Amino acid sequence: MWEDFTSRSKKKDDGLRKQAEVFERLFSGDWCDYISATAGQSIHRARQNKPRVVPACVDIEKVHHLLEEKVGAKDYATLGKATLCSISLFNRKRGGEVQRIKIEDFHRGLKCGVLTNPEMLQGLTETEKKLINHFSRIEIRGKFNRNGPVLLKAQMTHSIQRILQLRIELQPPIESPYLFASRSGERPYRGPDVIEEYAKEAGVTDGSIFTFTQLRKQVATLSQTLHISKWEQDQLATFLGHDIRVHRSVYRQPIEVMDRAELAKILLSVNKGITISKENLGVVDEELDDEDGGNSSDEENDIDATTDATADSDTANEALKAIQMEHALQNRTWKNVKDFVYSLVKKNRHK
Asked: Where is the composition biased (Acidic residues) (predicted)?
């Protein structure tokens, strides 16, 4: 069919030209309304209220423990696949990126990773300086020919050096330029196949979601709970090998816990007429205690009020001082005092 299309195009077939013009008009006029928009809406509807499942940390730990045992193997195949999986899993790289690392990339990366400017260390903490000594860094080619960094633990570097030594000792020796070349030497081991094999052997809860794509989504999603800055988000996206917009819209999944915890706190605050600030958001804790029942004893209320006031705003501290000074307020919480003062001030303003 394609050969027929090519030959007719070269002959300047008028019938084919008219068909192409009709298709172009239909495509430009109706495609977006009838096909593209409808397909997009169907995809979004299918994603609504659908559980967004990423690999659990406990399953990742299981695989890490298994890999720690495997990298001690003496045979080439087990050592190569375990090291490949260990580096990919630790760095959350795409399945095919680490498997395509070449030997020259590894050696060149180690040479370039030597710190030549001691002044770079002056602004680092002692922990960060120790991490620099513990990790090596190389660059690999990622998607869209982007250069992406890969961090190597000391154990990973040692395992790679053992792989290179075994390649020489094998008969016949492996001549492939790829670092993780298979025993046949034609192609490298496939990252997705390797992680599927080890996930099954480690006994993860759900092997179908233990993929490199889902693992990348997991680190992008859980990083939200760390409240990292925009600069740190951009740095993480660059390390993972994609644009920050892709990081936020595709990889970083909405967290139901964050919506119910953080966003609910903001909504409760604004609906109570409280100015949004880090200090005032603590007032919501007292509001939730009141909504949960309010059946606790006066002594428990005093303890809760004292604890909350210590951590909350200056308004709460002033209310606590008033409770301590006035015997008549001993059975009141700091929120009761604050609400009374607020009502009194509001009443005087309208006089």
From this structure: 285-305
Helix 212-222 / helix 230-240 crossing angle, nearest 10 deg: 170
At position 286, the amino acid (one-letter code) is E
Spatial CA neighbour of 247 closest among 257, 225, 232, 227 = 232
Calpha distance 138→188 (Å, rounded): 19
pTM reported for the whole predicted model: 0.63
**DSSP-based three-state secondary structure for 77:** helix
Specify which residues 141 forms β-bridges with.
147
Angle, vertex CA 315, rays to CA 312 and CA 318, nearest 5: 105
Distance CA 274, CA 112 (A): 54
Torsion angle, alpha carbons of 310, 311, 314, 319, to 10: -40
Question: Where do the domains of the chain lie?
Answer: 57-115+123-207, 279-349
User: What architecture is domain 57-115+123-207?
Assistant: Orthogonal Bundle (1.10)
Spell out the alpha helix ranges (H) of 48-123.
57-70, 76-91, 95-99, 103-112
Burial zone of 125 (CB within 10 Å; 0-12 exposed, 13-18 middle, 19+ buried)? exposed
Predicted confidence (pLDDT) at residue 322 exceeds the cutoff of 50: yes
136: DSSP letter: E
pLDDT value, residue 193: 95
Checking 283-292 for CB contacts under 8 A at 24+ apart, the result is 283/312, 283/313, 283/316, 283/335, 286/333, 286/334, 286/335, 287/335, 290/335
Q: For residue 233, how many C-alpha atoms fall within 13 Å in the half-sphere facing its CB?
A: 20
Highest mean pLDDT among 78-87, 182-191, 266-275: 78-87
How far, in Å, CA of 75 to CA of 159, rounded? 12
